[in-house]
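Sharing a chain and its predicted structure for anyone who wants a worked example. Both blocks are below, sequence first, tokens second.
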Amino acid sequence: MQNHHRAHGSPSQGGHGSHGRPYLMFWLNMILGLIVMYVVMFSMIDGWRDFRNNLNMFYMAITMWAPMGILMLATMPGMFPNKSANVVHYVALALLTVASLYATRSQTLIDDRQFVELDDPASLRRDPHVP
């Protein structure tokens, strides 16, 4: 049975690098998830002419993404055996959640011109559904 675990890279094998790979894969998954969430944020626009790449969309994607990382770590403890590394991840992800929520609400680093582009009354007039 021990040979079976070694052949398939089980986390229970005794090598030095056996505990680092799950965290590498966790962050790879998290980065890919953030990209997907950021792109999906733009599903709210009507078409390409309404596309505005802005920092607020990134803040909102982080606000969804960081709690997802906390839930992943909490629900898969067998995959992430290093308790001290988990605590560091929990704290970092919790801080990112709070910071991104604050940045979204306060419009951190969004200047007046960017804010006007986010809430352009002219774009509302183009929408046939808005009276």
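Comments welcome. The helical segments are 2-7, 21-40, 55-75, 83-106, 112-118, 121-126.
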